[in-house]
């Protein structure tokens, strides 16, 4: 290549020779320059540099090699400028003949400028013309090579200049970590890793002090935006306006086309229409009749202006100064979140069969503790025993009068049925159970004549214990009508309620000794029902207004529950003993949590008519109420052993099916002791069994 | 035959071929024919009967039932194919079987009280137990041959005890359970009675339950009976007369018993299975080593007879009244209880305790259910709604509903493989015969 240069640039070389002679000082510089030129081995450079690089050929190559070594770190692409004028505006040389000086200090002559037309023509012919760039600084034309255009294109696209560079090459971790048995440094962890940094501590103290002094302010003062919505909503700003009760005027309706001073013809009513308006009632008459004016100047003043402002003043003066606050809440969200009924199964929901046989309303039912037998007492004067699983009536007692209440003895094996009939209480032997049990029952139900005599001396006024003359059992004669009999859980004591009995309204009897005693507390109001506490020696006495809890051992009043109902009709005690439900004549049901308060924990208004009875299930978390409206309600009533958790009450099912007879509906309900089933006794003389 | 005369072109047709496993007079030619797709079971039955008549001119039409892919057709053919996603393009193979339905009603056998238990295990005699405390043996035609006297309470369950090698003889051994807390064993000659019913006394009273005995089941070879009771236990009892002595002496004694009808032996329970927490309402003893029991505590258990442990416990959620084991390889458990659903479990299915079939066409409690002892698919159920239903596992609808009783049906059984016998609270024993189960 170098040889080729020499050959091509023969003429200008001679001129250069002359210049070298003129300026000896520049020789060395030229050498340097030449070295740089050597690095750049591209032909275009050589062509253009030929004049200044004449010496290249003449000066020997040994210096070349030396300098190459020295400048090994310079970039390969860097091209030393031929022109040495430096970074000066080129217009300084605009009128000169030269464009600057080369490295030897010689003037670099401007090349003869081509005529534009010539250059254009040359360009048209030459297909590579677009690659040529004029370098003003060096006064030369540069023709870009293919690689260079490629580079530029790639740069313009934002890629790496060289195609072979892969910026996203997968990372190769050359270091083999697997076999590293030892850490890179075997030095023990230095102490400084374990102690808090002293420097940091100092810095923190410094900051804390600065904060205390107030040099550092942590919360920036809020900048109030200086811009605000000038034409923003009036009403919102009015609400924030000071003044106690600013009431914004109602917004007027926006004016339409017909309110224009010059509306289109179709808006303007005809003469007849205006006449017809006059015949209409004042309320129906349109408030505004469009009229037409030639120009805005002809529009008269608004005739109602004074009247309307007066009305507005009147409004403000007369309007009530309280603002109605609307709460925007979805009423559904206010309902308490209750578990779904599906999760609370099983519970009685459907009646599959009935116990038919009574001739009149069934007043009372009771299920034997094992769940095999059901006893019922009816207004037709019979007491019946049914087999639960088949619905067969296995025994009938004719007792003559309407039965008020039946109750099985809660001891298994002691199948005695207590029946309240009129002013008598009968204790009947049902004849169920094996011989051993029968012997025991017979012994219990035997009243000796002598003992009767003794007792009649002692407390004749209370109760007479007699042997029943017709059936196997005991007949107890009371003074007044007995409405309810309730057994103690051990099956020996039982209590009777005589609402008309005044101080003897509640009596407690001992079956094994045939004893009767008065209830030793003052009676408040007419008693309705009694219940024994399922585990402790408490008795619940419900009067029409309140429920009182007495401790029978300590002989004192423990608690008084105030349902604040009009008339209590029934009471049931949860098997755990701490919760009580009370039904009332007005159809309300109260749940008392005795640990919480004497006020009801929940008051459920469910029945439209009197509640006749309420019942708890022995093992399932269920309770039920039955009512004169011929329905029974089943609820889920979960009592948690955790004292922090209040009982959960969920209404589950309304059980219908009984027909109202003589204005009465369901008279009694009782749960099966082991299954989630409910028995209901109706005034339509049918007992229904609702199963899960 | 022109079934499609008045229907017009809009009706779609299906290519079908009738196949059957029935014997030759009931067999139609296996050529495919095009039939209207809106035909129901009745229409298909008419076609098959007509085809049979074309071959055999004095053919008596009889109802058939039709199976596609082992499922009974219970709606119109088109709906059935759509529901099952079966293509109507190909030739459809329809298998027909004799319709399972009683064709004849025998006169009812009248009792004095509710019929609470029934057994059709003996092919010549039907045994019933009644609430009046008497067990009765009936012959066809409403003839009462024997009355079993002795119980003081209602009979709740009866079963036949078949000692080894005694199947052929006319001597019968039966066991009854009663609400008087006892079980009684009876032995008599089935051929003996002529004229008025002969009275039989029990040769053995089994005492031990503390509450009424709800169900009884005999050992497959008759050596023992087991009973479930309201006291939530299952007791095992020996059936032979003396517990200690060998066979020879017992036979001797039996002869004495038969002559005098006086001496009564009592015996105690051999062992007692405790585990249920409520009334054991039903026991089944089909294989020698396992007793199945259903209880009101919502569980079905399988007891190992040797160890007395419950090896399998299935929780159902309803109080159960009846149980039977049968079906495919005598492994399926059918049970009904305090709701109108008859459920069938497959205990061989691992992991899942969900019932494999649920039949819910009854409208009240199910009081009894029984598998057919030959067929894998058929079972019968009785309900308090007064209906007896025949079920085929291949369809969810009852194949037949027998509505003969006027009150609750308390017990049901198969008899002689082709009759359904049922007893109810209307004090009747109803026999529906000629149920053809192939």
Automatic annotation (TrEMBL), chain A:
Required for maturation of ribosomal RNAs and formation of the large ribosomal subunit. One of its GO terms (molecular function) is ribonucleoprotein complex binding. Belongs to the WD repeat BOP1/ERB1 family. It comes from the Eukaryota. WD repeats lie at residues 355-396. Its main location: nucleus. This is Ribosome biogenesis protein BOP1 homolog. The keyword Phosphoprotein does not apply. It is found in: Nucleus, Nucleolus; Nucleus, Nucleoplasm. PANTHER family: RIBOSOME BIOGENESIS PROTEIN BOP1, RIBOSOME BIOGENESIS PROTEIN BOP1 BLOCK OF PROLIFERATION 1 PROTEIN. SUPFAM superfamilies: WD40 repeat-like (SSF50978). Residues 1-84 are annotated as: Disordered. Residues 12-38 have a biased composition (Basic and acidic residues). It comes from Stephania japonica.
Automatic annotation (TrEMBL), chain B:
Residues 242-269 are annotated as: Disordered. Residues 14-81 form the NLE domain. The keyword Amino-acid biosynthesis does not apply. SUPFAM superfamilies: WD40 repeat-like. SMART domains: WD40. It is found in: Nucleus, Nucleolus; Nucleus, Nucleoplasm. One of its GO terms (molecular function) is ribonucleoprotein complex binding. One of its GO terms (biological process) is maturation of 5.8S rRNA from tricistronic rRNA transcript (SSU-rRNA, 5.8S rRNA, LSU-rRNA). It comes from the Eukaryota. Belongs to the WD repeat WDR12/YTM1 family. This is Ribosome biogenesis protein WDR12 homolog. The lineage of its organism: Eukaryota, Viridiplantae, Streptophyta, Embryophyta, Tracheophyta.
């Amino acid at each position: 290549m170098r040889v080729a240069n020499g050959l091509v640039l023969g003429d200008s070389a001679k001129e250069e020779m002359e210049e070298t002679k003129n300026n000896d000082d520049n020789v060395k510089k030229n050498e340097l320059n030449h070295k740089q030129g050597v690095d750049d081995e591209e032909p275009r450079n050589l062509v253009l540099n030929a004049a200044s690089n004449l010496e290249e050929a003449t000066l020997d190559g040994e210096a070349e090699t030396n300098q190459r070594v020295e400048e090994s770190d310079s970039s390969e692409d860097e091209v030393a400028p031929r022109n040495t004028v430096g970074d000066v505006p080129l217009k300084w040389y605009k009128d000169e003949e030269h464009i600057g000086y080369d490295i030897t200090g010689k003037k670099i002559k401007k090349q003869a400028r081509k005529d534009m037309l010539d250059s254009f023509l040359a360009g048209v012919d030459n297909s590579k013309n677009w690659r040529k760039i004029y370098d003003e600084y060096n006064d030369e034309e540069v023709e870009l090579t293919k690689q260079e255009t490629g580079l530029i294109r790639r740069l313009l696209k934002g890629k790496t200049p060289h195609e072979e560079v892969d910026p996203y090459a997968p990372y190769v971790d050359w270091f083999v970590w697997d076999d590293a048995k030892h850490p890179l440094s075997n030095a023990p962890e230095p102490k400084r890793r374990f102690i808090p940094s002293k420097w940091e501590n100092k810095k923190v103290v410094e900051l804390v002090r600065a904060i205390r002094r107030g040099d550092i302010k942590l919360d920036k003062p809020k900048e109030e935006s200086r811009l605000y919505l000038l034409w923003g909503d009036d009403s919102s700003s009015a609400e924030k306006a000071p003044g106690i009760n600013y009431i914004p005027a109602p917004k007027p309706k926006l004016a339409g086309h017909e309110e224009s001073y010059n509306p289109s013809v179709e808006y303007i009513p005809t003469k007849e229409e205006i006449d017809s308006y006059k015949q209409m009632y004042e309320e129906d008459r349109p408030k505004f009749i469009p009229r037409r004016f030639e120009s805005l100047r002809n529009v008269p003043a608004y005739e109602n202006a004074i009247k309307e402002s007066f009305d507005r003043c009147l409004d403000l003066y007369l309007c009530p100064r309280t603002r109605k606050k609307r709460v925007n809440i979805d009423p559904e969200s206010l309902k308490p979140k209750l578990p779904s009924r599906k999760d609370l199964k099983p519970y009685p929901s459907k009646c599959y069969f009935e116990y038919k046989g009574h001739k009149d309303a069934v007043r009372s039912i009771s299920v034997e503790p094992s769940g095999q037998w059901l006893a019922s007492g009816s207004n037709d004067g019979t007491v019946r025993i049914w087999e639960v699983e088949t619905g067969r009536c296995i025994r009938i007692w004719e007792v003559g009068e309407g039965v008020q209440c039946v109750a099985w003895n809660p001891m298994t094996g002691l199948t005695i049925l207590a029946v309240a009939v009129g002013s008598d209480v009968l204790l009947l032997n049902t004849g169920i159970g094996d011989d051993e049990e029968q012997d025991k029952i017979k012994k219990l139900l035997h009243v000796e004549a002598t003992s009767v005599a003794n007792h009649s001396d002692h407390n004749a006024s209370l109760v007479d214990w007699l042997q029943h003359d017709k059936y196997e059992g005991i007949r107890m004669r009371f003074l007044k009508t007995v409405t309810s009999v309730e057994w103690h859980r051990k099956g020996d004591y039982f209590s009777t309620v005589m609402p008309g009995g005044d101080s003897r309204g509640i009596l407690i009897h001992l079956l094994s000794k045939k004893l009767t005693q008065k209830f030793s507390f003052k009676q408040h109001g007419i008693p309705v029902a009694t219940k024994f506490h399922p585990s402790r020696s408490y008795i619940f006495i419900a009067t029409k207004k309140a429920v009182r809890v007495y401790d029978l051992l300590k002989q004192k009043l423990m608690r008084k529950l105030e349902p604040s109902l009009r008339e209590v009709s029934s009471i049931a005690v949860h098997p755990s003993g701490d919760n009580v439900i009370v039904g009332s004549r007005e159809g309300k049901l109260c749940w008392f949590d005795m640990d919480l308060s004497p006020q009801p924990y929940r008051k459920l208004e469910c029945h439209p008519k009197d509640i006749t009875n309420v019942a708890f299930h022995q093992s399932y978390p269920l309770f039920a109420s039955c009512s004169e409206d011929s329905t029974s309600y089943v609820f889920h009533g979960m009592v948690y052993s955790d004292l922090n958790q209040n009982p959960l009450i969920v209404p589950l099912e309304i059980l219908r099916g009984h027909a109202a007879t003589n204005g009465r509906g369901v008279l009694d309900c009782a749960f099966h002791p082991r299954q989630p089933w409910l028995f209901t006794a109706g005034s339509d003389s049918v007992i229904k069994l609702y199963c899960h | 035959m022109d079934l499609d005369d008045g229907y017009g072109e809009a009706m779609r047709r299906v290519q079908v071929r009738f196949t059957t496993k029935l014997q030759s007079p009931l067999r139609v030619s296996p050529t495919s024919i095009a039939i209207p797709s809106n035909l129901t079971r009745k229409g298909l039955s008419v076609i098959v009967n007509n085809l049979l008549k074309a071959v055999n001119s004095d053919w008596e039409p009889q109802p058939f039932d039709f199976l596609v892919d082992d499922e009974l057709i219970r709606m119109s053919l088109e709906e059935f194919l759509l529901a099952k996603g079966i293509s109507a393009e190909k030739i459809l193979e329809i298998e027909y079987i004799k319709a399972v339905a009683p064709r004849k009603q025998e006169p009812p056998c009248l009792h004095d009280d509710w019929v609470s238990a029934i057994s059709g295990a003996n092919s010549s005699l039907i045994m019933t137990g009644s609430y009046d405390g008497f067990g009765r043996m009936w012959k066809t035609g409403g003839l009462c041959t024997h009355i079993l006297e002795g119980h003081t309470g209602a009979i709740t369950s009866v079963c036949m005890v078949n000692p080894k090698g005694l199947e052929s003889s006319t001597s019968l051994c039966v066991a009854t359970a009663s609400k008087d807390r006892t079980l009684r064993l009876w032995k008599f000659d089935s051929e003996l009675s002529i004229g008025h019913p002969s009275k039989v006394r029990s040769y053995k009273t089994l005492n031990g339950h503390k509450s009424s005995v709800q169900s009884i089941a005999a050992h497959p070879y008759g050596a023992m009976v087991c009973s479930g009771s309201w006291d939530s236990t299952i007791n095992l009892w020996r059936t032979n007369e003396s517990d200690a002595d060998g066979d020879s002496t017992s036979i001797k004694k039996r002869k004495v018993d038969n002559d005098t009808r006086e001496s009564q032996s009592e015996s105690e329970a051999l062992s007692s299975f405790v585990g249920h927490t409520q009334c054991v309402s039903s026991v089944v003893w089909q294989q020698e080593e396992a007793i199945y029991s259903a209880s009101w505590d919502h569980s079905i258990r399988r007891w190992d007879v040797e160890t007395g442990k419950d090896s399998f416990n299935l929780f159902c959620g309803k109080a159960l009244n009846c149980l039977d084991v049968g079906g495919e390889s005598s492994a399926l458990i059918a049970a009904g209880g305090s709701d109108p659903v008859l459920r069938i479990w497959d205990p061989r299915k691992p992991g899942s305790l969900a019932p494999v079939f649920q039949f819910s066409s009854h409208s009240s409690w199910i009081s009894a259910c029984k598998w057919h002892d030959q067929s894998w698919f058929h079972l019968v159920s009785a309900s308090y709604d007064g209906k007896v239903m025949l079920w085929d596992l291949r369809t969810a609808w009852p194949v037949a509903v027998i509505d003969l009783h006027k009150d609750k049906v308390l017990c049901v059984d198969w008899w002689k493989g082709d009759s359904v016998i049922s007893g109810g609270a209307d004090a009747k024993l109803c026999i529906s015969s000629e149920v053809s189960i192939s």
